[in-house]
Write a structure and sequence with these properties.
The chain is of the alpha+beta class. The protein has helices at residues 11-14, 33-46, 66-71, 87-100, 112-121, 145-151, 161-172, 178-186, 196-211; strands at residues 18-22, 51-54, 58-59, 80-84, 106-109. It is globular and about 55 Å long.
Length: 215
């Protein structure tokens, strides 16, 4: 799934960033998928997902609360995502999905070795691998590396470099907390694949670097 594939950052940072996508097939598997999507969200909440969404209703940071998704009548169909920061939580979630046996393909994005380990512990074996080949062309036009670590967590580009830099300046100036800035950015990502926990850490690091004159 390309919009979760191109996250940038160090291996240490990406070791706390995993995205799971479930989507029913368009030709079959649609019937009953609304209730299965609810089951997916319940299991994500149980296993400490830091963000999630339903394609029709929006994401955790764009809706009133989790109960809104669980109680609203949904139509069949639509993709659904969940984000985890802890490999153990991801492992337990995958094990729960295996036990639920909803009959859908599931895509997991993250460091390949870590994802393989989680799948193995959950009693699963991956079927296919997609790898990002990076960015080619006029790379001099890109935002700085540290900014892209944040912006690439929204695969549709709704979190802009300008917003990230503005938030960093506000954090450095004591006008905004890193947590508030991360949640503000998460609210702009309707897919629910933005990781606010990782963003908080990255934003704080950027603000600290600017205050210390390193950036």
């Amino acid at each position: 799934m390309s919009h979760t594939l191109h996250r940038e950052g160090s291996a240490e940072s990406l070791a706390n960033d995993y995205i799971v996508l479930q989507m029913p097939g368009q030709d079959r598997g649609m019937a009953g998928s609304a209730e299965n999507n609810r089951r997916f969200i319940r299991l994500a909440i149980k296993n400490h997902a830091v963000n999630y969404n339903h394609e029709t209703l929006g994401a955790l940071y764009t809706i009133p609360d989790a109960e809104h998704v669980l109680s609203t009548e949904l139509a069949d169909g639509g993709g659904i995502h969940a984000v985890f920061t802890d490999p153990e939580d991801l492992t337990n979630f995958l094990a729960d999905l295996k036990e639920a046996n909803m009959g859908y393909s599931v895509v997991v994005s993250g460091l390949l070795k870590r994802v393989d380990e989680c799948c193995h512990k959950a009693g699963l074996k991956r079927h296919t691998v997609n790898l990002s080949l990076g960015v080619h062309g006029r790379t001099d036009k890109l935002a700085p590396d540290d900014v892209r670590e944040v912006t690439t967590m929204c695969g549709h580009g709704m979190v802009t470099a300008a917003l990230v830099l503005d938030c960093v300046e506000r954090i450095a100036g004591g006008r905004m907390t890193a947590k508030a800035a991360a949640e503000k950015q998460a609210a702009l990502c309707p897919c629910g694949i933005f990781n606010p926990v990782r963003a908080e850490t990255l934003l704080r690091q950027m603000a600290d670097a600017r205050m210390n004159g390193k950036s």
